[in-house]
User: Fold this.
Amino acid sequence: MNNNFKQAREQARELDRRDPLRNFRKQFWIPKQADGREQLYFCGNSLGLQPKAVKAAILEELTLWQERGVEGHFKGERPWTTYNDLLRGPMAELIGAKPHEVVFMNSLTVNLHLMMISFYRPQGQRNRILIEQQPFPSDRYAVESQIRMHGLDPAECLVEIAASGNGRIINETSVEDYLAEQGDKVALVLWPGVHYASGQLFDLARIATASHKAGALCGFDLAHAAGNVPLKLHDSGVDFAVWCTYKYLNSGTGAVGACFVNESHNQRVGLTRLHGWWGNDPESRFLMGSEFVPAKGVDAWQLSNPPILAMAPIRVSLALFQQAGMTALRHKSIEMTAYLEQLIRSELNDSLEIITPAEPENRGCQLSLRVLAGRDAGRALFERLEENGTIPDWREPDVLRVAPVPLYNRYDDCWQFVNQVKRYLSIS
Ligand SMILES: *Cc1c(COP(=O)(O)O)cnc(C)c1O
Assistant:
């Protein structure tokens, strides 16, 4: 082992000792390997780990149901009918929204459809949706099917903005340029906050501003941004956003999704929206009238009563984010990802390419890596790592994603990751 690499381990241990957030790791269950050692878990971008307090929070709701039955809707410490009110404040804080611009409901793709039903209203030649090249498949399927639902052809109406070079990084200028030239044909810009494959973080305000200048609306998929990077949805002028809570927000597999609608749309008349009783104004919801009276803001998009057993983990998770604070989390995240990046560059430069942008303002915690020897070598490396209790993830065709999460990962995890990769690629 070379001296610099040895010293890097000392440095990692020192950084961990001094980390003001180090105790948060103890509040999570870290999965174990067969031999009882903790996994090196780098997959918080796919499924965040379970906060230890989650089980008790779910049990509390089960107990309320057990002991009070239907009264749980209105009685007890946290009545089910108003459960969203417990969550929207802390969530709004994390993403820079007003509490009444945020609601938890359904799942990401469902919410994306509900949003597009309202905010993709093609008219005449203004019928295009702008998305990034190679979007997450679900988003693409959703967009294509929305276009078809209007009797239009995705080959004409779905526009993918290509990466600027031959890599996977898309310059915001490409979006601005397209909108400057063809903006009168664009109805909606649907963009990621952080791209799932490349890890690129986009400038939301810039994209929203360019969209509005062209007369288009602008929505964001924040699946990889929420809980990963600080956001200012309201001030950025974003029209709507959707995200899931099982990635960086640690709320469990298939957890309930969330949705943001800018309050500037509250007064809009003639909005197309699918309705259900839970979107009715709570004041008259239980009067069982035949006329739909929309609740204020984003709440009007709710269809059904909320799945409380699935929402309880969100309450626990958001409390941890509140305790840690996004500023401190982001600070550690930038430092830890830079530590990992620097180590990869110094130890693995001949074997790995980092796809993710180098500037902290253009990325979250995730680094996306490519094994230079090719896809098969990359896939083999991923499998070796996994067999040995190190959990990054693999995204076809050739991306190894590593996400050191500031709530529970350690600098030393990053060192051990690089050490293992060196070993498996036979570099010493
Ligand atoms: C994770 C992810 C999804 C998942 O969608 P679900 O509806 O929650 O299954 C969709 N889009 C993007 C960009 C994602 O990263």
Observations:
- The chain has two domains: 3-49+325-424, 58-321.
- The longest strand covers residues 186-192.
- Residues 107-109, 136, 138-139, 192, 196, 221, 223-224, 244 surround pyridoxal-5'-phosphate (CB under 6 Å).
